[in-house]
Amino acid sequence: MLSRFSSTQEELQSQELQQETAAVGCTPIRQCQDREVVTVTGTLRAVTLRPRAGVPALEAQLFDGSAALDVVWLGRRSIAGIEPGRKIIASGRVALNRGRPVLFNPKYELRPVGQE
Amino acid sequence: MTTLPKQFLLGRPLRTAQMGETLLPKRLALPVFCSDPLSSVAYATEETLTVFALGGAALLHLTWWVAAAIVFLLIVVVASYRQTCYAYPGGGGAYIVSSDNLGETAALTAASALLVDYVLTVAVSVVAGVDAITSAAPSLAPHTTAISLGFVILLTVMNLRGVKESGRAFAIPTYGFVIGVYVMFAFAAARMLTGHTVRAESSHWTLHTTGTFAGVGLMLLILRAFASGCTALTGVEAISNGVPAFKKPKSRNAASTLVIMGVLSLTMFIGITILAMLYHVHAADTPGQLGLPATYSVPTALAQIAKASFGNVTFLFYYVQAVTAAILILAANTAYNGFPMLSSILAQDRYLPRQLHNRGDRLVFSNGVILLALAASALIVVFNANLNSIINLYIIGVFVSFTLSQSGMVRHWGRKLADSAAGNEGRGRMRRSQVINATGAVLTGLVLVIVTISKFAHGAWIVTIAMPLLFLVMKGVRRHYRNVADELRIADDARPEPPSRNHAVVLVSTLHAPTLRALGYAQSMRPDTVEALTVAVDPAGADALREKWDSREIGIPLKVLESPYREITRPVLDYVRTLRRESPLDVVTVLIPEYVLGRWWEQILHNQSALRLKARLLFTSGVMVISVPYLLQSAQRRKARERRAAEPKKPEAVAEKA
After folding, report:
1. Is A78 a residue whose pLDDT tops 50?
2. At what angle do helices B332-348 and B144-161 cross, to 10 degrees?
3. Beta carbons of A43 and B562 less than 8 Å apart
4. A11 touches chain B (CB under 8 A)
5. First to last CA, chain B
């Protein structure tokens, strides 16, 4: 009880997300190894809209309370439902891009917002 | 906005090059630096008489001896300080002399003693002057504190205007006082030579003793009387401290001023004491001791002497009273010269905040002047402008600094003698100076002990707490500055090192002119990556922004951050920190578009989250924050207004420009 008051908001949010990861049965992002096929879940912390010129791609950052992972859909500039704050389950093969895990063109499942 | 009233009160700002013009000739230096020691003759005799009054009229003849001791002490101190003026032409206050010769601890002790005493000087002299006024006009008595504070403010403003001008303002009362006292002596001499027997009005009042004093008790009483009389010595320090403010040749002028001061105060002190004894002046703490009703307003000893000397020439009596009140208040000015000077030296040596070393618009150490005024005002308010309680805290600091500075001078000459190749004549002069300073050191040290013992129980203990406290504060400030300097020091082979990559992040709330300017500016810096960052506090707004961004083809990636708790600051901070964590060798440049408005209340309506974010990002390492200002019309109008105010003579030209 006391720790609940003394811990920061960020810690509480991370804890909640990690509990959900366990409940859904996904791999925590921190434990993802390079070249491994994983299923992860979390909220999209940031979604980037790329300019029209250049390679079309939709890039987002998935955070599950243990670490962050980039999800990138190549060939598309936007996908309905992929927006900041949204919870998704994504699965694919992990690649390491400058030290950060990335899932390219993952299979994804949008999870309901708000009530569950 | 504040420039106009400030200019009106303090005068036009002076250029640094005009520094020489604020130097003082001797005739102005005397009132500036010496109003304190000169004015103290107005009450030094009375203080001695008051103490002896405790022992009854039979002890009053001891005043001769005490006065002789004080005269001797004053001669020794003046002679000692003359040596200091020559040895330290750059200003040789107790602090400099002791830090040169005796080390840090002694120097800081002297400095804290002096700082405390300067504050006390202001409080004591202002309150004493106001007391003189209220005893002339008793209806003002309930407002003593307010009047005292008013005078402190007046003195502060005068000193903020600058030394030279304040010297002019102070010259009149100071010289007026000296002349008044001498005229009084002339009158007294003339009347006595023509065979009159002059008596003060208090001569027939019988002293009611509080007890008989003999042996040790008598000794203590004599010492206490001596300690009280020593107020005549305060402020001698100011001249040796202020040598740089003199016109050239600085040392010689300062030394001569010191002698003039010594001669003036000695003759006045001796004369007043002789007249007090001849007139049989009786003085006491309370009217009751003189067998008078408690409400009786006893005139000061000087007032009694003046009244008796001038006889029926009453306008001269009132003249002496007026200039006495004036010089007492102005005596505080000695402290106004000493305190800022000392605090600026201390600040330069990093014992006090650096700001105290800055010269203000009028080339005076304005911050020191203001600090002194605040401290003295606080003292006056706390002690309710009661002279009797404040005066007991006084002079300990003076004698601490006297003793330390004289001991330092003894060391100084010793060192000079040891390593100088001067001929016999030069060595002889040095040895003589050393003997003078040694005598000064021993005597002032003795007086310090006497003063401390005789005044400790009467309130001086407050000073013995305040001084060590100040000492520790100064040590702490010094330690802080040294630690910071150590942290900032660079290695010998250190070169400027560019970060490996620079990520520019432009904060965007909506797509408008300031945003575009910030984006354009970010691109012009040629960082490794540029991106726009927005926080989706309200998802609908974020969607709208994304659509607009896309349809306008801004050409810079737009990153939308989620904000589950509807904050702006934290998601941005988190994001920037993640960037830094992943590549610690890179830097992140955060660009914040900001509106600049002309009025403060308009400012409140904007930029609030930007300000908060800036404050937080300041504490994140490796993050540069750039505000990209966008001048709104109200700001431009304000600029035009300020331009008009700055050139009041050519309004047409401004109109054309606008």
Report:
1. yes
2. 60
3. yes
4. no
5. 21
